[in-house]
Design goal:
With 103 residues, this protein is an all-alpha fold. It has five helices and no strands.
Length: 103
C-alpha cells in the first residue's frame, strides 16, 4: 500500500525528517490564520506574505510526494532531501517572518 510506504519512509528518514513531515501536516494552519487576520484587519501585506508561506508549503509537499511516487513500491526513500527543499523552506520561513513583521 503506497500510503503506508509514505509513512514508513517518513519514519526511517532520520529524526529530523520525520519531524519535518509531521510539521508539514500542521503548518497549513499558520498561513491560513495569518491570511484571515490580514483580511479582517485590512492588512494586504500580511495576506501576501501568508500566500508566500502557503506556496512554500505546497512546494514542500510536492517535493515529498513526487519523491514518494517516483520510488519503487515498498521501498524507503529520503522524503526531505536538502537541495530540493531549500526554496520551499525559504518561502515558508520568509512568509512567516513577513507575516509577523506585518503586524
Amino acid at each position: 500500500m503506497r500510503f503506508r510506504d509514505f509513512w514508513r519512509s517518513a519514519a526511517s528518514d532520520n529524526i529530523f525528517g520525520f519531524r519535518f513531515v509531521l510539521g508539514m501536516c500542521l503548518f497549513w494552519a499558520g498561513p491560513l490564520l495569518f491570511a484571515a487576520i490580514g483580511v479582517l484587519a485590512d492588512r494586504g501585506a500580511m495576506v501576501v506574505w501568508s500566500v508566500v508561506a502557503a506556496v512554500g508549503w505546497a512546494l514542500a509537499w510536492a517535493v515529498m510526494l513526487i519523491r514518494h511516487f517516483n520510488s519503487i513500491p515498498g521501498d524507503r526513500v529520503n522524503l526531505t532531501p536538502t537541495l530540493p527543499m531549500i526554496v520551499p523552506a525559504v518561502l515558508m520561513v520568509g512568509g512567516t517572518v513577513g507575516c509577523l513583521m506585518s503586524f
